[in-house]
Amino acid sequence: MLTRPMTLTRFLIEQQRLNGTIPAQLRLLIEIVARTCKAISHSVNKGALGGVLGNHGTDNVQGEAQMKLDVLANEMVLDANEWGGHLAAMASEEMETIHLIPNRYPKGEYLLLFDPIDGSSNVDVDLSVGTIFSVLTAPDDASGRTVVESDFLQSGRRQVAAGYAIYGPQTLLVLTVGSGVYEFALDRELGSWVLITERLRIPSGKREFAINMSNQRHWSPAVRRYIDECLAGADGPREANFNMRWTGSMVADIHRILKRGGVFLYPWDGRDPKKPGKLRLMYEANPMGFLIEQAGGRATNGVAPILDVAPDALHQRIGVVMGDPAEVDRVAAYHDGDVAG
Ligand code: P6P
């Protein structure tokens, strides 16, 4: 008998029929974001041949130089999601303020936040990058008025969906709607996202940490102690050797941790007290934290769950420690008494 592949479309329809977890508008949102990630993957894979490499010549709200792909992917997500009637507004790492749905289109109940190309500086050197997205529901009273930035300032616990696409040797989509983590591979011949992993769980006990060691002198004493013990390996208190990975792309590092375990740290550091960390809460830490928790992991700011943080600004940054619960909890225990950031 033909074993038909479980495509994203069929998965979403069956999840709605079996669990009622994916209302029609949310299903449309996820399908449109997934279709946009297919198009972004095509542009990323074209690289130099598509004229998409290099700097765009502008800076984003973070003061970071925008790559051509940052701007292109941002436009692709906006264009694809404006007309469907599923969104109230959008926000992106690449835009200073929120993007309202033009009056010529119907509005929906969801808010989409995204980092169109996370780790974009890696594209020019052919390393994996990705698109991260997070979905919130607009406040009830927003239906009768224009959405404002403060409508986005909801804790990560209120996300109704989150995911990422990773553009690497394969193009993969990793998604949660709050009932487990599901992994899809892009079948370029069919043009379909095909389910390859159901209810993904982070393997425990993997002795592998991901951190940018060049920032060591800026870390809190707790993080320095944790990393020192990893580096001491079998000769130190952990009595086991650790491996280290750092790709410079959160999507690639978190995907590796979801698939084979370990811990990712971009912790608070003392370089700029106004910036408690490098990564952004609303469209990097929250969606990744939602996925990590749904896969049985832990996601904190070093001490407390990221998803419980009450945001006070759209582009606020936060320290991040996420992955194997035992390792994340150890970092939190070492922070006892010296909470930083
Ligand atoms: P650094 C990419 O710019 C990013 O936001 C994350 O994807 C990545 O984990 C981090 O910054 C890398 O930062 O300081 O090592 O270049």
Q: What are the secondary-structure elements, in order, as H or E? A: HHEEHEEEEEEEEEHEHEEHEEEH
Number of strands: 17
Strand order of the largest sheet: 4-3-5-6-7-8-9-10
Task: Give Rg in angstroms.
Answer: 20 Å
* Biggest beta-sheet profile: 8 strands, mixed
Give the uncertain stretches in residue-range form. Answer: none
Mean pLDDT: 94
Structural class: alpha+beta
Shape: globular
Proportion in helices: 25-40%
Measured distance between first and last alpha carbons: 57 Å
Number of helices: 7
How much of the polypeptide forms β-strand, as a percent range?
Answer: 15-25%
Q: What is this entry, summarized?
A:
With 341 residues, the protein is α+β, with helices and mostly antiparallel strands.
Structural notes for this entry:
28% of the residues lie in helices and 23% in strands. It is α+β, with helices and mostly antiparallel strands and 341 residues long. The chain has an eight-stranded mixed sheet with strand order 4-3-5-6-7-8-9-10, sandwiched between helices. A five-stranded mixed sheet has the order 12-11-13-17-15, with helices on both faces. A two-stranded antiparallel sheet has the order 1-2. The longest helix has 23 residues, at 24-46. It is globular and about 65 Å long. The N and C termini lie far apart (57 Å). The model has no long low-confidence stretch (mean pLDDT 94). 6-O-phosphono-alpha-D-fructofuranose (P6P) binds next to loops. Pathway: Carbohydrate biosynthesis. Substrate binds at residues 118-121, 212, 278. Its cofactor is Mg(2+). Mg(2+) 2 binds at residues 115, 118, 284.
